[in-house]
Specification:
83 residues, alpha+beta, 3 helices, globular, binds zinc ion
Length: 83
């Protein structure tokens, strides 16, 4: 099976999910903004990234987990009683 590439995400309108194993920070990235070739395999993109929060290099990348991205997903489930 061919790995999913950055071009696949762009074509499907999906985001790239990146997670830092060191500090737990995660975010969704526009795959078109990643400065790597479009045929780059998504799981390998993380090896080329560095966490902007802690400088960690243990970054995992995968196709977006939730439609619209993790931030939208969180907002959807956020309790209305939270400040
Ligand atoms: Zn980090």
């Amino acid at each position: 099976m061919q790995p999913v590439t950055l071009s696949d995400l762009t074509r499907d309108g999906k985001l790239l999910w990146a997670w830092c194993a060191s500090c737990g920070r995660e975010r969704d990235i526009d795959p078109a903004s990643v400065p790597l070739p479009g045929d780059y395999a998504v799981p390998e993109v993380g090896a080329r990234m560095r966490c902007t929060a802690c400088g960690g290099r243990k970054v995992r990348t995968a196709p977006e987990l939730y439609p619209g991205g993790i931030v939208v997903h969180r907002d959807r489930w956020r309790s209305p009683f939270e400040s």
